[in-house]
TrEMBL record:
InterPro entries: Bac_surfAg_D15 (IPR000184), D15-like (IPR039910). Residues 578-767 form the Bacterial surface antigen (D15) domain. It comes from the Bacteria. It is found in: Membrane. Keywords: Cell outer membrane, Membrane, Signal, Transmembrane. Its main location: membrane. GO terms for cellular component: outer membrane. This is Bacterial surface antigen (D15) domain-containing protein. Gene3D superfamilies: membrane protein fhac: a member of the omp85/tpsb transporter family. It holds the Pfam family Omp85.
Amino acid sequence: MKIIPRIYIGLLVLLLFLSGCSVSKFIPEGHYLLDNVKVESDNKEIKSSQMNVYLRQTPNAKWFSLVKLPMYIYGAAGKDSTKWVNRFLYRMGDAPRIYDPKLAEETRLQIEQAVRNMGYMSGQVSMHTQVKGKKIKVGYQIHSGEPYLISHVAYDIADYQIHDYLMADSARSYLKSGSRLDVNKLDEERDRITQYLQNRGYYRFNKDFITYQVDTMRNSRNVDLIMKLHPYRRKKEDPPSPHRQYYVRNVDFMFDVDFAELTSGRLKGIDSLRSGGVNFFYKDKLFLRPQVISDYNYLKSGNLYRTRDVQSTYSALGRLNILKYSNIRFREELEADSAYLDAYVMLTRNKNKSLSFEIEGTNSAGDLGAAASVAYSHRNLFKGSETFTFKLRGAYEAVTGLEGYANSNYLEYGVEASLSFPEFMFPFLSSDFRRRSRATSEVTMKYNWQIRPEFERTVASAAWSYRWGKRGATHRFDVFDLNYIYMPYRSETFREYLDYMDERNPLLRYSYEDLFIVRLGYTYTYNSSGATTLKTSQRNSYSIRFNIEESGNLLYLFSRMISGRPKNGEAYQMANISFAQYVKTDFDYAKNFMIDDRNALVFHVGVGVAVPYGNSKSLPFEKLYFSGGANSVRGWSVRSLGPGGYRGDGNSLDYVNHTGDIKLDLNLEYRTHLFWKLNGAAFVDAGNVWTIRNREMQPEGLFKFNRFYKQLAVAYGLGLRFDLDFLIIRFDGGMKAINPMYTGRDRYPIISPDFKRDFAFHFAVGYPF
């Protein structure tokens, strides 16, 4: 019997055992296990899924929406809580949910109230139960009836200035004639008006000053709606007065200075200066340049108070790494008919410098090794919250499968320096533009030295890039990215191998030559949940990533102007070194469907196309696509699939051949919460890579429209994820289902799986998409 059937049989036996564990011993006499809860509606405007938030009781959770395994684990325990085994099973499992009629009735009332709040004032919700043995099923049926509609909207606003403001903005109102009398929309309109007025100086205004009056027409479901705006009262017993508009008078920035010290007049040991209409108070010395604060401050003396300016200031200051946190407080000053606000912005400094160490284990195609790094950071290099980082890294790996070499050790040394500016650094840009762009600029320099038994390789790079974003969207523009690849040493054995493969696979030699890569690129990412996080979103969401880059065009034009013709009739060179010329674009889309609060279905598609031209016959090795691995088709190890139906020769350097110019990934993953911090996943992956130009050794790897879909590799598998809040550790095991590298019976390992041949294990950090 093969290993994989044994595993399947073992899992099946375990499931049958746990499902046979009785939970009836935990169900008191006369009570029932809540087996299912269902909400149904007779109105398509009222979605049943919207009412799930009002359920006071829900059944036990199901793994993969199929089996209540956590409940059965709990049922496998005894009732004696003094035994550690039982306590352990209690923690791992999920206690049976006992039906509570009081909570069921509260649920019915809350759903009914929610339906009426949506404008169906005569709506009713009925509840029915179905008992079978010790289990009970509960159903809620929504009978909405006809909705109440708004016939006319009137306004009762005595304050003429606020009245004029709201009438000028009435087009954005949520209250329209003919719409349902939805209480939720009424409340949203109160929030909208409150925000609108708070951005026009009404510092003390809140939504409690807005009420509604509804007049129902006789024998009709049409209503007249009157919005009333009440005058200002600080306390109920105070006489009414008009709402005041506040102006910002003074803006004070306090650097590690307590608010009480400043407002009480105790200024001993506190220095101050004034710059750009802003006061600065600090102890010892000012750790940020005044101009930096001016660029990040939206509170201007003499302007009307606006909540938007407060939030913009918070957001801008939050981008300064030197600040640990910031807090803005206001003090009111009333003078005759005028109202003023003094703003106090308190800034607390973060640590300037930090030193970190990191040790990691590596696994490259089965070769084990270790790496260590040390990094130094300075968060305020020029007193403008510029972040300077310097990093040293060293790695060792024991290389296996090599013959004809004196040693089998792989060493790598790296040094990296980067400097990040919290603004758009470019000549001739105004301060206003830099403030509105909310961009960061970064310059990086890297040097990497690789020593292998076959060769030595150094990679030197320098880059300048910009990054900016807003509301879930992020843009990155790489203005300049230079990479210089230099091969100072190739062993004699390795040279002979390259000569032998030269005619069969020119790509292999091209991958180990000196090369310049000068690229320009743009990347756009968007996440509808507002931010990219490691955790699965608790609502339906999607993400998009688009990247495009080009390399070598400017060098090509410059070389043609200088040389006029390529060297040796093959390629133009810069400083006697060839340079790459290509264009590359990628697109990724992922959609997250939340089934319930414990289960989600995620779909992902990734497409990439890269075209070498002009000075290049092939893409640089670093820019070629590969398939397989923890984030691709997980039935294959990294760089072991494709292109197309190419099988490979099993050589240790064959990973170079498993690359292509076109990539397609299709993934479907079902994610479920198991227990504690452990999540599970079941997945199906499909994909491959292909070449644009025919390679002599890989004719089956050439992309053709009439056959590429037949060359899609398919895999399936299971995964575990440890969600540590700040980090997700992922383990995935994938099995090949369709293998395009073979024909006949071997093409479909899903029919006759061989664990040793068809299984791939992956360890990774974060979700695959």
